[in-house]
Design a protein that fits this description.
mainly alpha; two-stranded antiparallel sheet; about 5% strand; autophagy; Autophagy-rel_prot_9
Length: about 775
C-alpha cells in the first residue's frame, strides 16, 4: 500500500505523532501557531502605541482640555474623552521616526516575526502530512482523535510497522523503541540532572543554596547540546562520531567550551531585547490575574528543575503531568504545614490595620459615591485589598492538624523520589526548603523568568564552560546505538546490570560502578514505572530477573504484613487521617497502606494490639501487592485479557502485579465501575505508588547496616551533595535485610502512643500544673 507522504523521516516521526495527539490535532495546533504569531505582533504594536501615541498629560488631567463648538454643552467642555488622549496618526508616526532606538527595536522584532512566520508555514505543511498519516495509515479520523488514548495510538503504530515495514532497519517496533524516539533528548536531560552535571544549583553568599532553571536557560542547554549550530548531535537521531571516541576528548572539550562561550556572549548581547520582551509579556499576562486573584502569586507549581529531577526515564509528558498533578494536593498540604510564628503575628496586625482603613473607605463610598472622585481613592482601595489578601495567606488555620511525616509519605507515593535525609526530618525547615526547590511559588517562577535574561549568560560563561570535559565524557560513556532507533542515552535502556544501584534491590544483579549508577534508584523505579504503564512490553533478561527478584521479596515480606482485607476495611478511617478528599477506591487503598502503621500503634478504642502486630508501610504495601499478584495468577486467561491497559503480558518474568481485580472486586459492587477504563488506570497509578513506597522502605533498611558499620549516621546534606555522594557509600558485599525480620522501632511521625500520653497527663496532674500547648496543633 502506498501513502502520498514521506516515511523516510520515520525516526523523527514518532515525536511529531505524539505531539499531534497531545495537542488535539491539526486545527488546534495551527490555531495555536497563528495566535502565537498574532500575540507577538499585538504586544509589539500595542507597546509602541502606548509609548508614542498617547498624551498622558491629558489622560491624567494634568493639562486642561477645552471643547468648543456649536451645540457643545458648557458642562462638557472640560470633560476628558479617550480620543483626546490619543495623538493623530501623523504626529504618532513622527514621534516614532524621531526615536532611533524604537526603530531599531521594531526592525529586530520584524525580523524575528518573519522568521517565525516562515517556520509556522513549514509547520503547517509538516502537520498536514501527520494528519494524513493519522487518517490513512492509522485509520483515525480527526473528529475521533480525542477519543483515542495514546496507548491505543501506540498499539496501532506497532501493528502498522508489522504490516508496512516503515522502519526498514527493524522488523518490529516495541513500546520502548517508540518511547526512545519521542524522549531521546529528554532522557539525556533527566540523566544529566540525576548525575548533577548541569549547573543549575547555585551557592550564593547571602541566599545560600539555590536552584535556578528557567525556560530560557533550559532552551540554551538544549541548543548547545542537541540541535543548535555546533551541537553534539549531527542530526536528530545520531551523535556525531567524533564524540564517541576517547582519543581527542580534550580537544572536543575545548571546542565545546568555545561554543558555550559564543552562546553566552550572544545571550549577553541579546539580554536587553529579551529582558524587554519578558517584562512586557509578564505584564500583559499576569497583571489582570493579580488584580482579580491576588492570592494566585502564593499558589505553587512544579518547577522546571522539579520536573526533571522527579521524571522517570522513558516517561512521556502526559504521564509526568498526570503523576505530578495527583501529587499537587498532598505537597501543598505539606508545604502549608510550615508556618512562621513571627510572620503570622506580623500578618495578623498588618491585616488588621489595612482592613480598618479599607472598612472606612468602603463606608464613605457607600454613604456618598462622590468619594470615588477623590484622587487615588480607587488606588488605595485596590492596594489595601491586595495587602489584606496576601497577609491572610500567611495566617494558618487554627483548626487544622498537620502530620508532616505522613504528609511527606503521601507526597512520596505520587512523586516517587525522595532524598534519604528527608526521612524522619519532615518537620525541619531544611527539608521544607528542599521541597520548595521542586515545588515553588508562582511568584518565584515569574521572578526567575524575569531575571533569566540577566543570569543565563553568566551561568553559560562561568559555570557550564567549566563542565565541558565532563559533558564530553558523559555523552561518550552513556550513549548507545540502537538499531532502528539511533543514538540514545544508555540510562534510558533501564539496564539493571549497567546502571543499577545495589542499595535499590539490585545487589548481585549489577556491575555498575559508582560513576555508572543512576542516583536515587532512578533506574529501578523507572523500570517498574515503564513495565506497569506498558504491560505488553517484554523486558530484557536482566530486567526480568530484577522484576522476579522484586516479586519474591514482596511475597516474603508480605508474610509479616497485615491482611489485605484488614487494610481495605480501614480505608475510610485512613483516608480521614490523611485528609484524603478524593474518596475514590485507589486513593483510599493508598491511604490505608500509609496510615496502617499509625493505627496499629495508636491504641485506638476497639483495637487490641495483641492480635494486630506493629507493621510498617513497606509490609502493608507488600501485603497488598502480593495479594494482587496471587489473585492475578488465579484468573483464567480470558479474564486477564479484559483490560490490556493494566494487565501484563503472559511472559512469566515480566508479569507485574495486576491491579484491576482483587481490590476493585472487594471495594466496589458495581460491575460497570470495575470495567471503567478510568478506574483501571487509577489502580495502575496506585500500584506504582505502592511500589515506590515499598522500594523506598527496603532501600532505607538496606542502607541501615551500611550506615552503622561506617561508625556514624549520615547527616542531612543538600540535594546537590546527596546526588553526588549516594553511590560512594555502597558496600559490594552487603546483604539485603528483609522487612519481616527487621526489629526496628516503629516510626510514628510525631504521633504519641496512648500509654505515653496517660503517663504525661498523670505526671502533670501530680505537679498541679497544665501541660504546655503549642498555639497550633500538630501530630
Amino acid at each position: 500500500m502506498e501513502f502520498p507522504f514521506k516515511f523516510f523521516v520515520f525516526l523523527d516521526l514518532n515525536f511529531h505523532i505524539y505531539q499531534f495527539h497531545q495537542k488535539n490535532g491539526f486545527a488546534c495546533m495551527m490555531l495555536s501557531e497563528f495566535f502565537e504569531l498574532f500575540q507577538f505582533l499585538f504586544v509589539v504594536t500595542f507597546t509602541t502605541f502606548l509609548f508614542n501615541c498617547v498624551e498622558y498629560d491629558i489622560l491624567f488631567a494634568n493639562r486642561a482640555v477645552n471643547h468648543t463648538g456649536p451645540g457643545q454643552n458648557p458642562l462638557d467642555r472640560n470633560k476628558v474623552t479617550l480620543p483626546d488622549a490619543i495623538l493623530p496618526s501623523q504626529q504618532c508616526t513622527e514621534r516614532i521616526q524621531e526615536n532611533s532606538w524604537i526603530i531599531f527595536l521594531l526592525i529586530m522584532a520584524a525580523i524575528f516575526w518573519v522568521y517565525r512566520m516562515i517556520k509556522v508555514f513549514c509547520n503547517v505543511l509538516h502537520y498536514w502530512e501527520i494528519r494524513q498519516f493519522y487518517i490513512k495509515a492509522l485509520k483515525i479520523r480527526m473528529g475521533e482523535l480525542c477519543n483515542f488514548t495514546w496507548q491505543e495510538v501506540q498499539d496501532r503504530l506497532i501493528s502498522l510497522q508489522r504490516e508496512q515495514q516503515m522502519c526498514i532497519h527493524k522488523k518490529e517496533l516495541t513500546e520502548l523503541d517508540i518511547y526512545h524516539r519521542i524522549l531521546r533528548f529528554k532522557n539525556y536531560m533527566v540523566a544529566m540532572v540525576n548525575k548533577s552535571l548541569l549547573p543549575v544549583q547555585l551557592q550564593l553568599p547571602l541566599l545560600g543554596n539555590l536552584v535556578f532553571l528557567t525556560q530560557g536557560l533550559k532552551y540554551n542547554f538544549e541548543l548547545i547540546l542537541f540541535w543548535g549550530p555546533g551541537s553534539l548531535f549531527q542530526n536528530k537521531w545520531n551523535l556525531h562520531p567524533k564524540y564517541k571516541r576517547a582519543g581527542n576528548r580534550l580537544e572536543l572539550a575545548q571546542q565545546l567550551s568555545r561554543v558555550i562561550l559564543l552562546m553566552g556572549v550572544a545571550n549577553l548581547l541579546l539580554c536587553p531585547f529579551i529582558l524587554v520582551w519578558q517584562v512586557l509579556y509578564a505584564f500583559f499576562s499576569y497583571t489582570e490575574v493579580i488584580r482579580r486573584e491576588p492570592g494566585s502569586l502564593g499558589a505553587r507549581r512544579w518547577s522546571l528543575y522539579g520536573r526533571l529531577y522527579l521524571r522517570h526515564f522513558n516517561e512521556l509528558d502526559h504521564e509526568l503531568h498526570g503523576r505530578l498533578g495527583r501529587g499537587y494536593k498532598p505537597t501543598s498540604k505539606y508545604m502549608n504545614s510550615f508556618t512562621s510564628p513571627l510572620l503570622t503575628v506580623l500578618a495578623k496586625n498588618v491585616a488588621f490595620f489595612s482592613g480598618s482603613v479599607l472598612a472606612v473607605l468602603i463606608a464613605l463610598t457607600v454613604y456618598d459615591e462622590d468619594v470615588l472622585t477623590v484622587q487615588h481613592i480607587l488606588t488605595a482601595i485596590t492596594v489595601l485589598g491586595v495587602v489584606i489578601t496576601i497577609t491572610r495567606s500567611f495566617i494558618p488555620d487554627e483548626h487544622m492538624v498537620w502530620c508532616p511525616e505522613q504528609l511527606l509519605q503521601c507526597v512520596l507515593a505520587h512523586i516517587h523520589y525522595m532524598p534519604d535525609h528527608w526521612r524522619d526530618n519532615a518537620n525541619k525547615s531544611e527539608t521544607r526548603d528542599e521541597v520548595a526547590q521542586l515545588f515553588q511559588y508562582k511568584a518565584v517562577f515569574i521572578l526567575e523568568e524575569l531575571l533569566s535574561p540577566i543570569v543565563t549568560p553568566f551561568i553559560l560563561i562561568f559555570l557550564l564552560r567549566n563542565k565541558s570535559l565532563e559533558i564530553i565524557d558523559f555523552f561518550r560513556n552513556f550513549t548507545v546505538e540502537v538499531v532502528g532507533v539511533g543514538d540514545i542515552c544508555s540510562f534510558a535502556q533501564m539496564d539493571i546490570r549497567r546502571h543499577g544501584n545495589p542499595l535499590w534491590m539490585s545487589e548481585g544483579q549489577t556491575e555498575a560502578s559508582v560513576y555508572q549508577q543512576a542516583e536515587n534508584g532512578k533506574t529501578e523505579l523507572s523500570l517498574m514505572h515503564f513495565t506497569i504503564k506498558n504491560p505488553h512490553w517484554q523486558p530484557p533478561q536482566e530486567s526480568s530477573v530484577f522484576i522476579s527478584h522484586l516479586k519474591e521479596k514482596v511475597h516474603q515480606d508480605a508474610q509479616g504484613g497485615p491482611p489485605t482485607q484488614l487494610l481495605l476495611s480501614e480505608a475510610p478511617l485512613c483516608s480521614s487521617l490523611l485528609s484524603n478528599e478524593s474518596g475514590n477506591a485507589p486513593d483510599n487503598l493508598l491511604a490505608s497502606v500509609l496510615a496502617h502503621p499509625i493505627l496499629t500503634a495508636s491504641g485506638l478504642p476497639g483495637r487490641d494490639r495483641r492480635f494486630v502486630p506493629p507493621s510498617t508501610a513497606a509490609s502493608a504495601a507488600a501485603s497488598v501487592l502480593a495479594s494482587l499478584s496471587i489473585s492475578h495468577s488465579q484468573l483464567p486467561h480470558a479474564s486477564r485479557s479484559h483490560s490490556h491497559v493494566l494487565l501484563p503480558s503472559t511472559h512469566p518474568d515480566s508479569t507485574m502485579y495486576c491491579s484491576d481485580r482483587t481490590v476493585i472486586d472487594s471495594m466496589s459492587a458495581s460491575d460497570s465501575r470495575i470495567r471503567s477504563t478510568t478506574m483501571l488506570s487509577e489502580f495502575a497509578l496506585a500500584e506504582m505508588s505502592l511500589h515506590a513506597i515499598y522500594m523506598h522502605e527496603v532501600h532505607q533498611q538496606n542502607s541501615l547496616p551500611h550506615q552503622r558499620t561506617s561508625g556514624q549516621w549520615q547527616n542531612p546534606m543538600p540535594m546537590r551533595d546527596l546526588i553526588s555522594n549516594t553511590g560512594s557509600q555502597t558496600h559490594s558485599g552487603h546483604t539485603a535485610v528483609h522487612l519481616s525480620s527487621m526489629p526496628t522501632p516503629l516510626r510514628l511521625g510525631g504521633w504519641t502512643e496512648e500509654e505515653e500520653e496517660d503517663a504525661e497527663e498523670e505526671e502533670v496532674l501530680n505537679r498541679g500544673s497544665t501541660p504546655k500547648q503549642d498555639s497550633r496543633s500538630s501530630c
